[in-house]
Amino acid sequence: MHTLNDLKAGKLVGQTRVKIACGLSEFPDELFDLAETLEVLDLSGNRLHSLPDKFASFKKLRILFLSDNEFDVLPEVLGQCPQLSMVGFKANRIASVPASSLPKMLRWLILTDNRIEALPDSIGDCRPLQKLMLAGNQLKSLPRAMAQCVNLQLLRISANQIDELPDWLFSMPKLSWLAFAGNPCCCHSRADQALEEIHWNELHVNELLGEGASGLISKAYWQDHHDVAVKVFKGAITSDGLPADEMAASIAAGQHDNLVEVLGQLVGHPQEKSGLLLSLIADDFKNLAGPPSLDSCTRDVYSSACAFTLQEVDTLITGIASAAAHLHERSIMHGDLYGHNILVNDRAECLLGDFGAATFYGEQSPLISAALERLEVRAFGCLLEELLQRVTEPDDMGSSPVILSLQALLTDCMSKTPSQRPSFSTIYGVLLSLRLDRSRVLSSA
User: Fold this and answer.
1) Which terminus of the chain has a lower count of CB atoms within 10 Å, N or C?
2) If you compute the radius of gyration of the chain from its CA atoms, what whole number of angstroms results?
3) Spatial contact of 220 and 201, defined as CB atoms under 8 Å apart
4) What is the pLDDT of residues 188-228, one digit of tens each?
5) What pTM was computed for the model?
6) How far apart are the C-alpha atoms of 427 and 321, rounded to whole Å?
């Protein structure tokens, strides 16, 4: 974090990244002294409501964050910034997105938690667009011109007013991560079992285990029971959608060996927050990957030391395929099927968690249900691709029947024609067959 005083004193000249949050109500002119070098500018958490016309003089600016400010309109001058590829205006009060406000180099646009009722057709001109965050607005539809955004991979449109998903959405060649819960086009999930209500006073909450976009997860002791994890939702709109939809999808998912088990529903929180009681995961489980970076945009970041044997990939990917098939049998799209939402131990046993982007899409037509599943199959394909890139086997393994079969499965999952991708139940069956074939080869060797 930098200070306004340092900026005015000329101490930031030459900087490529600047972050200032001090209640600014006017854009500081001194920032233009950095026009030749500035690449990342974060002025989130201020009281700004406009940008000066000469903002386009930031010729090298790639990333701009102006979340938690007071903008009513997405500034048109953004469209004049030649290198601007990531724009974040979360939690303003934006109602209008002018056609000229969208930079042609745009890869990642965050307009979560605003008041937008419509998007301009010019969004179709943003061909590099990969990630679009629109949860928590007042959108009733998406412009057909968006079908031209053929590189779009992640779309968040939860908590809007969309009555029907457009047909063209199901033909997007790279769309893999979709969240649309909290719209009229969604049904309310129906859990097939009643969850026990656990009162806050029954818990002894201990250390914080982690924090996500939607809530805080802490270790707790449940009276007369055992150690558990408790997730308390923050209560506001997140980048993925509404906490209530996450809780409903988590409950409706039921039990599966490769899903984090939900034990109960939290009641009686002193601040009237909702939450879930989850089984406590063993300490030897770690996140498979880190979330996407500003540069990777839609793809997870793996440790440079991360490597797998073919057996480990087989165990891991089969477990995730089984979990995904289970979810879609219950008309649930996970929406965030990523390595960073998968916990794995040294035996490659895995658990898929974090239902923050999940959507219960029940009672859609069979065609739409199948189309939604095929979108998520591409996310599975991305995961399989990332794992195969990290297989540590002898050089001749690249031509082994198992590797060749997995590469063929990967090709099918990544097909640019979504309707040609296999279902998760088919994928699971293929993986079981490969496992059986591999066992036969090993036993005969």
Assistant:
1) C
2) 23
3) no
4) 655 555 678 899 999 999 889 888 778 889 999 987 668 99
5) 0.94
6) 7
Residue 239 has pLDDT above 90, yes or no: no
3-class state of residue 59 by DSSP: coil
Distance CA 391, CA 383 (A): 13
Task: For 190, list phi and psi in degrees, rounded to 5.
Answer: -125, 105
| Fold classification of 4-179 (topology level) | 3.80.10
Sheet with 227-233, edge to edge strand ranges: 197-199, 262-267, 275-279, 227-233, 215-222, 203-211
**CA atoms of 29 and 53, how far apart (whole Å):** 12
* CATH 1.10.510.10 domain residues, the chain: 286-444
Residues in the chain: 445
Interval 369-410: pLDDT, tens: 999 999 999 999 999 999 999 998 765 555 678 889 999 999
- Distance CA(336)–CA(324), nearest Å, equals 11
Per-residue buried b or exposed e for 99-138, using 16+ beta carbons within 10 Å of the residue's own CB:
eebbbebbbbbbbbbbebeebbebbbbbeebbbbbbbbbe
- State the fold for domain 197-279: Phosphorylase Kinase; domain 1 (3.30.200)
Question: Could you tell me the fold of the domain covering 286-444?
Answer: Transferase(Phosphotransferase); domain 1 (1.10.510)
